[in-house]
Design brief:
Blueprint (H helix, E strand, L loop, with lengths): L5 E4 L6 E6 L5 E4 L4 E4 L9 E4 L5 E6 L7 E3 L3 H4 L6
Antiparallel strand pairs: 1-2, 2-3, 4-6, 4-7, 5-6
Bound molecules: zinc ion.
Length: about 80
């Protein structure tokens, strides 16, 4: 598994972002903070959408780490303060 993620700056709000290359070959801006996640229990709906370092978008729940199954990143566009919705 190779990761060639690079850092940059959001053109809208000026915050640091990280580019992740998705499975579809697109570059997606995310917030550089790692978020620990676990998959929701059967039948439950995940609260969060994260992007894994491998560029996969997954629906999961945040956790504080003890029972984490992995980590991912939040799409910067979900939190960008300046981008128009
Ligand atoms: Zn931004």
């Amino acid at each position: 598994m190779s990761s060639s993620n690079s850092f940059g700056t959001c053109a809208y709000c000026g915050k640091q972002i990280m580019w992740i290359r998705t499975k579809a070959g697109k570059n997606m801006p995310v917030n550089p903070q790692m978020i620990n996640y676990r998959k929701p229990e059967n039948g439950k709906k995940a609260k969060e959408k994260l992007v894994t370092p491998q560029g996969e978008t997954i629906a999961v729940d945040r956790t504080d780490g003890m029972d984490a199954e992995g980590f991912g990143y939040i799409s910067h566009f979900a939190t960008c303060t300046k981008k128009r919705r």
